[in-house]
Amino acid sequence: xxxxxxxxxxxxxxRYCITRLPRGQRFDAAVLDTAAWYSLTRTDEELSVIAPSDxxxxxxxxxxxxxxxxxxxxxxxxLIGVMASVTTTLAEAGISVLTVxxxxxxxxxxxxxxxxxxxxALLGAGHEVTRA
Length: 132
Known about the structure:
Blueprint lengths: L7 E4 L4 E7 L16 E4 L3 E7 L8 E11 L10 H11 L4 E5 L4 E6 L3 H10 L3 E4 L1
Parallel strand pairs: 1-8
Antiparallel strand pairs: 1-5, 2-4, 2-5, 3-4, 5-7, 6-7
């Protein structure tokens, strides 16, 4: 995979929040039922939840103000350097990212105030960016 590869992205419509809950913290998972997209990651130290900002959790550290780009897929597991090429483009534009991968595709979260710069950087690199 080279940086000349072109990908298609779409912005998910919600604004997102990243919440860190203490490991073992319980919450009613039904609060996530209305979300079109969310991510849960558990480690030995924490439970991280990325979900629409309007979903409230009983406790935890919150980082508000994220937008999410969905890379249109599915992407083949044999592809090499997909995220490297895209995140390099964004890094060169001074944009910090958080990435999440699923079985079918990848998601890139950027700070809301950098979303237009991210869109412009991706378009400038020849990628397609649309709204959901």
